[in-house]
Design a protein that fits this description.
The structure holds 2 protein chains of 2 kinds. Chain A is built from 2 helices and no strands. Chain A is mainly α. Chain A is elongated, with a radius of gyration of 15 Å. Chain B is of the alpha/beta class. Helix content of chain B is 36%, strand content 20%. Chain B has helices at 20-27, 32-51, 85-93, 105-115; strands at 14-18, 55-59, 72-77, 98-103, 126-130. In chain B, strands 1-5-2-3-4 form a 5-stranded mixed sheet. In chain B, strand 3 (72-77), helix 3 (85-93) and strand 4 form a beta-alpha-beta unit. Chain B is globular, with a radius of gyration of 14 Å. The chains are: A mainly alpha, B alpha/beta. At the A-B interface, helix 1 and helix 2 of A face helix 3, strand 4 and helix 4 of B.
């Protein structure tokens, strides 16, 4: 889905920040279920990449700003 | 009971618990695409329950009034060290039409209360929690 306004971009950036914080926390952990931690990291990274792509696509179609 | 959609075609804010039969009646019969997506949801729930899932939440265009949704976003809560790891690995391979997030408690709470709880414009919206899966 394409972002259509600065407001949508701002909200997407907020979600991205939350997900990146979760990813960093999960990355730094060690635990008794390494496989589950890896699956969580994979899930978060997939979502993070999706949001980054949406933001980049929006920005690529904006007029150049000085 | 799943509440009616709001004027934007989304569920009202919050988690709305529903059994698979109710989810199918409300979201899984309105188009051929929805029928096959619902089939995937059923496979996912069966696998997730076998794997020892604690909670399952559905989000995305599947739980809106869109006739042909893009996909079904699912977030699955697991407790470390518990459940059937072989079944969990099957979930890791993925299922058609489903974007499955397998997470622990902290991430699950953020998905449900923050990331999935609002649309792109920041408007709060609802999700479906699968209940009574036994």
């Amino acid at each position: 889905m394409d972002l259509r306004s600065e407001r949508e971009v701002a909200n997407t950036r907020n979600k991205l920040r939350v997900l990146e914080e979760l990813y960093e926390a999960a990355e730094a952990e060690t635990g008794d279920d390494e496989e589950l931690r890896e699956m969580e990291l994979e899930s978060l990274k997939r979502f993070i990449n999706q949001l980054k792509e949406e933001i980049a696509r929006y920005e690529a179609h904006q007029p150049l700003r000085r | 009971m799943i509440p009616p959609f709001d004027e934007s075609g989304c569920l009202p804010p919050g988690l709305h618990g529903a059994a698979l039969a109710e989810i199918e009646a409300r979201f899984g019969r309105q188009s051929e695409l929805r029928r096959v997506q619902m089939e995937s949801v059923r496979w996912m729930v069966e696998l997730a329950v076998h794997a020892g899932v604690q909670r399952i939440v559905l989000n995305g265009s599947f739980v809106t009034d869109i006739i042909e949704p893009n996909d079904v976003d699912c977030v699955l809560l697991f407790e470390p060290g518990k459940g059937n790891r072989a079944a969990r690995r099957e979930l890791r391979k993925g299922l058609p039409f489903l974007d499955i997030a397998v997470v622990r408690k902290r991430a699950f709470d953020e998905y449900v209360h923050s990331v999935f709880a609002a649309d792109r414009t920041g408007e709060r919206k609802g999700m479906i929690e699968v209940v009574q899966w036994t």
